[in-house]
Amino acid sequence: MESLNKFALIAPCGMNCGICRAYLRNKYKVGLKRVLVGCPGCRGTNTGKPRYCIGCKIKNCRNFLKDGAKYCFECNIFPCARVKHLDKRYRTRYFMSMIENLEYIREHGVRIFLKNEDAKWACPKCGDTICVHDGFCIGCGKKK
Questions:
Q1: pTM attached to this predicted model
Q2: What CA–CA distance (Å, rounded) separates 82 from 86?
Q3: Tens-of-pLDDT digits for all 144 residues of the chain?
Q4: Which of 23, 29, 33, 97 is the most exposed place for a label (fewest CB within 10 A)?
Q5: Which of these, 18, 63, 28, 51, lies nearest to 138 by C-alpha position?
Q6: Domain boundaries in the chain?
């Protein structure tokens, strides 16, 4: 997972944008048969972001913005209904938890979280990134 600023790839909702299909599509130019503008990550510009990205909607939440928080766990209503819904969807479909990610970041900090994410989502065959949504390495295609 390479980035000039990997910290910016951790969305307020706890999603690691560096393992997301939309971000990886941009990084590796996957799907060139269609003209694709990939996502720069939740904290990046709005160009190329999927309309369905709940993390991007959470980033613009009034409760979240009023205190200038960086992560949802800093909000007084954490976990809110949106985060719970997102967490349930990701636990069910992709076997990861946004709430667990946020609680880990709160307890250990984003640096340690990123170090663990790099190890967790690295392909054992080539070392590239495994996509959370597809379950295979974006570099060599090996299934997780």
A1: 0.83
A2: 6
A3: 344 488 888 999 999 999 998 888 766 655 544 445 567 778 777 666 776 676 566 666 777 677 678 899 998 889 988 899 999 999 999 999 999 999 999 999 999 999 999 999 999 999 999 999 999 898 888 887
A4: 33
A5: 28
A6: 6-120
